[in-house]
Amino acid sequence: MGELQTLTVMGLPIHWGAHYEDWLLMRHQQGLGAHVVTLNAEMAMQADQHPELKAVLCQADLAIPDGAGIVLYFRLKGQRIQRCPGIELAESLLQKLTPEHSAFFLGAAPGVAEAAAQNWRSRQPGLNIVGVRDGYFQSDDLPELEAELKALQPTVILVALGVPRQEFWIAERRSLCPQAIWIGVGGSFDIWAGNKERAPAFFCNNNLEWLYRLYQEPWRWRRMLALPKFAIRALTY
């Protein structure tokens, strides 16, 4: 694929283009690897308040427009881009992996990553998932986990530790697997494991997936306050 177009929102990069998964696999083949950030309004607001997180997001090799707020911001600026949910990018990437490639699932509650991996093994029998770890490891477990990643050198490492923990975790350990494609996937494992459902197509296609998530998890209302705050902050940045 061609070069990605780099846009900015609140000082954070957004890379816009088609076929992100092809671009990522090309980087892997070139031995470069990548840290992928799935940017949404909530993450942008966190970065606005925490310079350390902003620095990590700015250093990412690929930042995709995951959230509806990001897409709507650019539309107000006259730039039409399409939303690219992180879960869809991860799925497209896994589907393109050959038997020579491999994947590692890391994060979520005990049993969830394994259930997600089993789902993928059923859907795609040729997919080579070389490791699965839940996200409830302790600091004493880190040397073993890091050694495992270093020994396996997976092609794709999906990290579901929540924002911003997963972004910091990836940035601090990229050197363990420099050719890997590292992606923070948030709650994707729960969906693949069958514990949660994605919004129906109508909500996804109309940038209303956040509304369906609020319906499913009313306790998220405080986090959803980031949307109007983001709108005001982004337009006056």
What layout of secondary structure does this protein have?
Elements: E1 5-9, E2 12-16, H1 20-29, E3 34-39, H2 41-49, H3 51-59, E4 62-65, H4 68-76, H5 86-96, E5 103-107, H6 112-123, E6 129-133, H7 142-152, E7 156-160, H8 165-173, E8 181-184, H9 188-192, H10 201-205, H11 209-216, H12 221-224, H13 226-235
Parallel strand pairs: 3-4, 3-8, 5-6, 5-7, 7-8
Antiparallel strand pairs: 1-2
Placed side by side, the strands forming the largest sheet appear as: 4-3-8-7-5-6
- Write down how many β-strands occur, each being a DSSP E stretch of 2 or more residues: 8
Largest sheet: 6 strands, parallel
Provide the number of structural domains.
1
Beta-strand content: 15-25%
In short:
This protein has 13 helices and eight strands. By secondary structure, it is α/β, with parallel strands linked by helices.
List keywords for this structure.
single chain, 237 residues, alpha/beta, six-stranded parallel sheet, two-stranded antiparallel ribbon, 13 helices
Structural commentary:
- It holds the Pfam family Glyco_tran_WecG.
- The chain is of the alpha/beta class.
- The protein has one domain.
- The chain contains 13 helices and 8 strands.
- The chain has helices at 20-29, 41-49, 51-59, 68-76, 86-96, 112-123, 142-152, 165-173, 188-192, 201-205, 209-216, 221-224, 226-235, and strands spanning 5-9, 12-16, 34-39, 62-65, 103-107, 129-133, 156-160, 181-184.
- It has a 6-stranded parallel beta sheet with strand order 4-3-8-7-5-6, sandwiched between helices. The chain has a two-stranded antiparallel sheet with strand order 1-2.
- Helix 1 (20-29) crosses helix 5 (86-96) and helix 2 (41-49) packs across helix 3.
- The longest helix has 12 residues, at 112-123.
- It is globular, with a radius of gyration of 17 Å.
